[in-house]
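Student: I would love a firmer grasp of how sequence relates to backbone shape in proteins. Thank you; the sequence and its tokens follow:
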Amino acid sequence: MATIDGDVPMEPELEMSDEELEREAEGFKEQGNAFYIKQDYAEALNYYTKAIDASSKNASYYGNRAATLMMLNRHRDALEDAQQAVRLDDTFTKGHLREGKCHLCLGNAMAASRCFQRVLELEPDNTQVQQELKNAASILEYERMAEFGFEKRDFRMVVFCMDRALQSASACHRFKILKAECLALLGRYSEAQSVASDILRMDSTNGDALYVRGLCLYYEDCIEKAVLFFTQALRMAPDHEKARLACRNAKALKAKKEEGNRAFKEGNYDEAYKLYSEALTIDPNNIKTNAKLYCNRGTVGSKLNKLEQAIEDCTKAIKLDDTYVKAYLRRAQCYMDTEQYEEAVRDYEKVCQTEKTKEHKHLLKNAQLELKKSKRKDYYKILGVEKTATEDEIKKAYRKRALMHHPDRHSAASVDVQKEEEKKFKEVGEAFTVLSDPKKRSRYDSGQDLEEDGMNMGDFDANNIFKAFFGGPGGFSFEASGPGNFFFQFG
């Protein structure tokens, strides 16, 4: 007799008979059933596995373990057990039904239908399998609709179809990935990332999920991180064409944008404009990056004094991303530079709704002031002088304009022309009265109401200003010196 360490005799191992193994296996199965009823699926799985180890040719043991694995959401493992069960017994109805349910849950509707048809061959009156066949048909229809929707870029339809399909195919990674990709294309990045992350927790090598994670980062303008995910996806799935194209676009977009930024910093604005324009052609679907590119090009346009073009680019940026504060600020400044004050006020108000800084409030207040000032008569424009004009320049300009529009000079003109010239003569007098007085001019420049100084422009007499300015003991008159020519003569 053999011994352990040379002194303790070993008991010979007695092999159990097939009958004893069957009894032991049945005992394990009964214990598994008890735990299954209690919904303790982990223990049920343990005892069904013991039953299979004791008797590996019993189809019902595999069928029971398949049912338990399904409750544990381990549908791929459950599918293997269900398939083994029907290999052992092709008349095992529950085995075919469970195989079909696993296929259905994993999104394989055609394979599921074949299993359910086999059940109907065995049990023509089985109502449960008739409903499962309808579920399989619905999934096939939702797949067809989703494929059509994706081709038409109707990503909302695809998300809707996948949500419906996943009600029956809850473990189908393919459906989840398609939904996540469409959520990303719709700009619903957090939802898309959540779906992809759930899959990666179960399968960290899933190339499709890695691609979707990269796509979300790419569309959120985190291009460097996106490239890392695309590269990892290609490592796991070298033939992943979407990941390959996205990776190529991401690298090209990053390089072109950086070239444009570099040209801008170096003051080479024409080159920067060209590079930003080229970058905008790379991927029309990348909304956030393209919004920044449009805004950058708008900034370049303002530097090149192409203000209307800059406004158009900022508007395109805002259309792509209506939360893009920098684009609103850039466009507002362009509106200010082109004296479109109402539009500037509107943009600054939009900014102040979310960015309530002192600087932004100051910009809004300044735009509101300029808007208020723009609605008054522009006395500088009436006299034809700059806002920085000196006192002598203002006097010189008044002399010229007052003589040009004096009513006596146009006494031979039509009534309409006389009225128009009289109006202009009065405005010239108003302008001189305000701009020749340092106090009034200061209040006018700051946007304050001149009525507070007691100056009522409605009762203003331009002739008094004219007389005071030109003076002289005698009168004054305009006399013709030739056809269409007049000269001013003092008495």
User: Anything to note?
Assistant: Strands lie at 3-4, 8-9, 476-482, 485-490. Residues 290 and 414 are 59 Å apart (CA to CA). Residues 127-151 form the longest helix (25 residues).
